[in-house]
Amino acid sequence: MASDNGVDSDCMTITRFLIDQQRSCPGATGSLTLLLNQLMTAVKAIASAVKRAGIANLYGIAGSQNTTGDEQKKLDVLANDLFINMLSTCGQACMLISEENEDPVIVPEENRGKYIVTFDPLDGSSNIDCLVSIGSIWGIYEKKTPGPPTKEDVLRPGTEMVSAGYALYGSGTMVVMSTGCGLHGFTLDPNIGDFVLTHRDMFIKNRGKIYSTNEGYEKYWDQKVTNYVHSIKYPEDEKKSPYGARYIGSMVADVHRTFLYGGIFLYPANTKSPNGKLRLLYESNPMAFMMEQAGGRATDGEKRVMEIEPKGIHERCPVFMGSTYDVDDCMKFLTA
Ligand code: P6P
C-alpha cells in the first residue's frame, strides 16, 4: 500500500517477484533473473526515449532498412541497440535474434551464457510518429547443444521456450511476462524508476465480445476467414449482438487489450502474404506462450502456434489468438 509520499515501502518489483519465483523453481540459479533484469534496463531506456521522441527529434526515418525492407525509424535503431548491448554484456545470453538483424547476433565467447533471446525491439514502429502505443516483444530459449551457438539452436518449436514477455509503451509503460508459472503484469512506477506488480496471475476470459483484425485486407482473405468474421458481425441468433471491432495495428497493444478484455486477435494469411505478416520467432511464439499461460489459445489456423517447427529465423505465420471459445469458433470455420 502506498504511503503518504506515494512510495510503497514494500513494493513487489519485477526483480523481487522473479527471485520469489526462482525459489519455487528447482535448479534455478538466478541466471534468468539477471538476464531479465538487463532486459528491463533496455525497456526502461526505450520507454524514456519514446516519451521524449518528439522533443529529442527521435522521430523520422533513420535512413536504413531492416531485414524485411521496412524503413527503420530512429527509435527502431535505438531500441535494437539497447536490446543488443544490454543482453550481450550480462553474461547470460549466447545468441540474439532480432527483427532488425538479418543474421543472428552471436555474443562474444567471453560474455556467453546459456540463453537465446529472440526479440522485436520496437514493434508497431509505423505508429511511432502519431503517438499510438508501440511495444517490444521477446522470447527466451535455453541452449541445449554444446559448442558455439548456431541458428539451429533457435529453430525449435515455441513449446521449448522458457520465458516470454512484452513491454507496452502507451499512456503508461507496462511489462507483461511469464517464466512458465502464470502470466503477470508490472507497471513502471516513475517514483522509483522500477516496474511493480500490478496484474498478478492474468487470465483471459473464455469468451469475449471484441474481434481485432485489419479488415482492409478482406479482399485478400481466404473465404473461410471471411465466413468466420461475418459470423460474429451478423450473429445467426437475432437476440445476440455483434462483436465490437478494435484494431490498433500495433500487435502489443492489440494483444494486451485482448488479454484484459477477451475476444480474438487475428492476422490471417492472405493472397498478398501467403504466410501472414507476423513473425514466428519474436512476435507470434512469445505472444502464444503468454496467451496459453493466461488460459487462452493461439493457433496458425491448423495447430498451436507453439508447435510450428521453424525453418528460418524471420519466418512468418498466420495467427488466431485469444479467448478459447472464440478461437475454437474460428477454427470450426477454418477447418470446415
Ligand atoms: P497491418 C506492426 O507493423 C506489425 O508488425 C504488428 O505490430 C501489427 O499487428 C501488424 O504489423 C499490423 O499490420 O498490415 O495491419 O498494418
Short description:
The protein is 28% helix and 23% strand. The protein has 7 helices and 15 strands. It has an 8-stranded mixed β-sheet with strand order 4-3-5-6-7-8-9-10, with helices on both faces. The protein has a 5-stranded mixed β-sheet with strand order 12-11-13-15-14, with helices on both faces. A two-stranded antiparallel ribbon has the order 1-2.
What's the helix and strand layout?
Layout: H1 14-23, H2 31-52, E1 61-65, E2 71-73, H3 74-88, E3 93-98, E4 105-106, E5 115-123, E6 134-142, E7 161-169, E8 173-178, E9 184-189, E10 194-199, E11 210-212, H4 223-233, E12 244-245, H5 251-261, E13 264-267, H6 280-293, E14 297-299, E15 319-322, H7 324-334
Parallel strand pairs: 3-5, 11-12, 11-13
Antiparallel strand pairs: 1-2, 3-4, 5-6, 6-7, 7-8, 8-9, 9-10, 13-15, 14-15
Helix pairs in contact: 2-3, 4-7
6-O-phosphono-alpha-D-fructofuranose (P6P) binds at residues 123-124, 126, 214, 249-251, 254, 277.
Please characterize this protein's 3D structure:
The protein has helices spanning 14-23, 31-52, 74-88, 223-233, 251-261, 280-293, 324-334, and strands spanning 61-65, 71-73, 93-98, 105-106, 115-123, 134-142, 161-169, 173-178, 184-189, 194-199, 210-212, 244-245, 264-267, 297-299, 319-322. The protein is of the alpha+beta class and 336 residues long. It folds into 2 domains: 14-199, Fructose-1,6-Bisphosphatase, subunit A, domain 1 (Fructose-1,6-Bisphosphatase, Chain A, domain 1); 210-334, D-Maltodextrin-Binding Protein, domain 2 (3-Layer(aba) Sandwich). The strands form 3 sheets. It has an 8-stranded mixed beta sheet with strand order 4-3-5-6-7-8-9-10, with helices on both faces. Strand 9 (184-189) and strand 10 form a beta hairpin. It is globular and about 60 Å long. The termini are far apart. The relative contact order is 0.13. The mean pLDDT is 93. 6-O-phosphono-alpha-D-fructofuranose binds at residues 123-124, 126, 214, 249-251, 254, 277.
